[in-house]
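job 3f2a | input accepted
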Amino acid sequence: MASLNFRAVVFDFDGVIIESAGIKKQSYRQLFEEEFPDHLGEILAYQESRGGVTRRRQFEEIYESILREEPGPGRVDALEERYVGLMFERVISAPLVPGAFDFLEKFHRRIDLFISSTTPEDELNHIVRERGLAPFFKDVYGAPMQKAEVLGLIARRVGCAPGGIVFIGDYPTDREAAESAGVPFIARLGSSDEMEKCAEKISDLTELAALLERMVP
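job 3f2a | predicted structure (217 res):
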């Protein structure tokens, strides 16, 4: 039986477990077209570079760096509520990334599996349960925890150095979190062209087990 060489595998969720990264991009675009049409191009370019940052922080940074004004009372809350309304049901019904179910089903009893996402944790847990994925994971971590913090916590939880676990993500911010925590990183391609530059990368999760067998912690 193949050995995966690591003590735990940590997955980002959108674009790694389910094919929802595109859905979220489309929902952001619709929101920005409605709310900030005069700054649409600049905001979309910003959002492409900051995928993997919590949506609340993205809205705050749009006001700070692009609009250069303070959001009014409750404005960020309203943007967040509108965004969730645009994307939530579509994410619930989005297909799994190819190979995701097979990998999780095959390996969840042999190695500890976790999720670390910037989706708010209550919402993330709801989606994971609705998709029938909860039994595969030891735990699910979402915002407000930062991914680098979560990775360190998971390494301690499974009793190994950070290099003994691996993180799979689809945005540069995921790679940065792994580097900050000292954790090996695998890029899932498709959400960001920047991920092509990563040393370890996969097109989808059908390739994951073979790559983990080759990687040395």
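job 3f2a | The chain has a mean pLDDT of 94.
job 3f2a | closed
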